[in-house]
Amino acid sequence: MKKLVFLSGSLLLLVLTVSTGLVSAQQFKSQDNITVTKDQKIDSAVYYSGNNIDISGDINGDLYCAGSTINISGNINGDIFCAGQNINLSGKVDGSARLAGQNINISGQLIDGVSVFAQSVIISDRAIIGRDLNGGASTLSINQGAKIMRDLTVGATDININGSIGRNIKSAVESLTLGSSSSVGGSIDYTSDNLINQDEGSKVSGSITQNQPKQESSKPAILFPLASAIFSLYLLVSMLVTSLVLILIFPKKFEDVNNESLKSIGKTTLIGAVNIFIVPFGLLFLLITVLGIPLAFLSGLVWMITLILSGPLFAYFIGRQLMKGKRNSVLVMMAGSVVLLLLYAIPIVNIFAALAAGVYGSGMVVKYGLSKLSKPSYNLTK
Predict the structure, then answer these.
(1) Which of 65, 107, 292, 365 could be a cystine partner for 124, CB 3.0 to 4.6 Å?
(2) What is the pLDDT of residue 145?
(3) Secondary-structure percent of the chain, ordered helix, strand, coil, rounded to 5
(4) Of residues 91, 97, 66, 92, the one with CA closest to residue 79
């Protein structure tokens, strides 16, 4: 019992840490057009969701954004986590950037590294990436004057390099071209059916090693990270649509469930922890007994429903904390869903976000269900 209490307390601390971190953000916006002008200065992390996002001012904190067209020309004193159709990064970033989209153009200066997943990536002549550039793309162009201070690790269909790479290149690619103004401070290790295209004037300090793709695979290696990124984006969008449909159909029910959970956050977390970590063993026991197989399937179906609803409910819980003064349940769900989906997109953090959503979200479902149960009566009425 003590171990269960300790585990539940730890999970409660996790949920509260995630929620408190989100609430502390002073800037959360979800609207069609979002603008941060040059004279604006924001001293906090920001969470933006919109069609057009234009950031020219300074942000002293991490930037999380999702939109159609995203322009970042201001100074970001933190990390960037953004997804959009077109992303243009021309400002200074005192941190790293993780970007996913259709077209990505980087012309700014970053202290740390960059991770990209896109159809087209252009590193322009003014760009300086302080550490590594990695990810997946259909086409990657590193223009003359661009500098990547450490390694380039990318899967792509076509890579054209005219800038400088501080250390090594490791890539799975169909076509790799070193232009006349390119320079590589280390070695090149690439997997391709085609030989590297090296123009006169290009410089490679180390060795160049070509690896042949595995013959049993008929697809280019680059398709795997790109397909993974597209599938992840599909999952995120589908989860957002599911949450919005549910809130449109059951707005009052979401509010009731949220209010019930807030009566005792500790109890809600404890119930959720039992539902996530203990109930599966109970279902397994029922299956082993053979006679309990039908009951195990029925109970398992109910258990799966609690897991499916845990994400949307936890997103609504987050939105409620962020937008306490708002009375529009759809906007609340949109806000919470965007923040939760952004957390899901961040490596390592997504593990803790999923755990928090599963535990607290399923706890919300079960606690509300228990509150509505009445003592059964076995007396038959005439």
Answers:
(1) 107
(2) 93
(3) 40, 30, 30
(4) 97
CA dihedral 243, 247, 249, 252 (to 10 degrees): 150
Q: In terms of Cα–Cα distance, which of 108, 64, 111, 71 is closest to 87?
A: 71
Across 36-50, average pLDDT:
86
- Supply the pLDDT for residue 5: 34
Tokens representing 11 are: 């999970």
Coil, strand, or helix at residue 52?
Answer: strand
- pLDDT tens sequence across 100-150: 888 999 999 999 999 988 889 999 999 999 999 998 888 999 999 999 999
Structure tokens at 7: 């585990």
Of 34-43, 295-304, 335-344, the least confident: 335-344
Number of Cα atoms under 13 Å in the Cβ half of residue 16: 12
Alpha-carbon torsion 91, 96, 100, 102, what sign? positive
Task: Please name which of 226, 231, 229, 236 lies closest in space to residue 354, comparing C-alpha atoms.
Answer: 236
Task: Using alpha carbons, list the distances in angstroms from residue 115 to 79, 106, 137, 225.
Answer: 11, 12, 11, 12
Alpha-helical (H) ranges within 24-68 are none
Sign of the CA dihedral 309, 45, 334, 71? negative
Amino acid residing at 249: I
